[in-house]
Amino acid sequence: MRKITLPMLLTILVLASLLTSCEKLTVSLDSLDKEEQEVQVDTSPALVIEQPETKTAENIGNSVTGDVVAEAEEPLFATHTVKMTADGFSPDRLYIKVGDTVVWKNTRYGTINKAMIIGVRECSKVRSSFLKSGESFSWTFDTPMTCTLADGVMTTKESKIYVE
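Predicted structure:
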């Protein structure tokens, strides 16, 4: 009877510890959202905001129009790149417009070289597969929202995308 009871006890102990650790992660993410609702977003100079690439009349060229240079139009949508590093997301906060695309590129190397993007709550559809070093995943945001993303490999790392 003891031989059967010991494996059952170990199984219950492992399941309880897994459930407890998952609950702590959910609770910690919930408390972060509540804190951000109460406190205004920090816009200190250390915040990195990528600027979209724009085309100008100088870099379009004028081979079609001869001597007449056509005016460049502002791009409708921009592409922003977020690197997945050993320290997490870089940048970890990003402000974009509706219709913009975010590309997450895995730049990790060494022992832990995989990454995975997991959207939470209203961004739950944003989900990548495991990304090997050098691979990337992109998502186009089509509605205004604040999107919280977690790293599926380094589960303590998170990022916010503010879609305006």
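Summary: The radius of gyration is 22 Å.
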